[in-house]
Specification:
By secondary structure, the chain is an all-alpha fold. The protein is 70% helix and 0% strand. The chain has one domain.
């Protein structure tokens, strides 16, 4: 199913699919943790979470905080992230496992139907579980083909990015640099690992752009095509 060459355009869709699913999962986990703080410890804690992502948000209660996170009119809402994940999935439908695509549609449909329903922690936990299921399905069913590696590449890049934005802890991403370089090398044999020696977080984030640029955009993408047959 995945022996045919993957175009740069398709590679980008797979990469962003992985990023968006990981983004939704990570943000939902963070929202649940913040929800407990909003209720019991610090009402403004949720605003601090959004601020780390460059989002200004207001809410009136703990449940309202969850609603703003899921359906708020900002680019970081779970609703908008899942929509973007689905758009990228549709473009690569022929490469995706049936169950993974169906699970994504399930999340999408529930979100579309839930605008007028109360948002509860249990509702968020269900979406988290389904996001985990999607990533798990593609990691096993695509058997580490180019399509899977591109999804995983996006997933790891997003994890790296969010950890730095949310926690600002460089020590938490040291191992991720090696993983990202390893996946990038598997995707493109002409890729040369990027080593980051700075402690400047903005420069660390530029590292991400450099890796993606070298793997998908600038290097001869034909080197990807022989990788799945190696």
């Amino acid at each position: 199913m995945n022996s045919a060459p993957i175009s740069i355009n398709t590679a980008q869709h797979l990469y962003w699919f992985g990023r968006y699913v990981q983004r939704a999962q990570t943000l939902l986990v963070e929202m649940l943790e913040s929800y407990d703080y909003v209720l019991d410890r610090e009402f403004e804690h949720g605003k601090k979470l959004f601020a780390k992502l460059g989002i200004e948000a207001e809410y009136n209660s703990g449940l309202d905080f969850l609603r703003v996170g899921v359906y708020g009119s900002h680019y970081g809402s779970v609703d908008s992230i899942i929509k973007m994940a689905r758009e990228n999935a549709i473009e690569t439908r022929h490469l995706l496992d049936e169950r993974g695509f169906a699970t994504l549609n399930k999340i999408y449909n529930h979100l579309c139907e839930g605008h007028d329903r109360a948002i509860s922690p249990a509702y968020l936990e269900e979406i988290i579980d389904n996001c985990s299921l999607i990533l798990g399905i593609f990691s096993s069913e695509l058997d580490r083909t180019r399509a899977y590696q591109l999804i995983r590449f996006g997933q790891q890049i997003e994890r790296f990015d969010l950890i730095l934005r949310l926690y600002g802890e460089l020590d938490m991403v040291v191992a991720d640099i090696d993983v990202i370089n390893s996946i990038a090398r598997q995707l493109n044999r002409q890729y040369r690992p990027i080593n980051v020696t700075t402690s400047d977080i903005p420069k660390f984030l530029l590292f991400l752009n450099g890796v993606v640029d070298k793997v998908i955009h600038k290097e001869p993408f034909g080197s990807l095509q022989s990788q799945s047959q190696a």
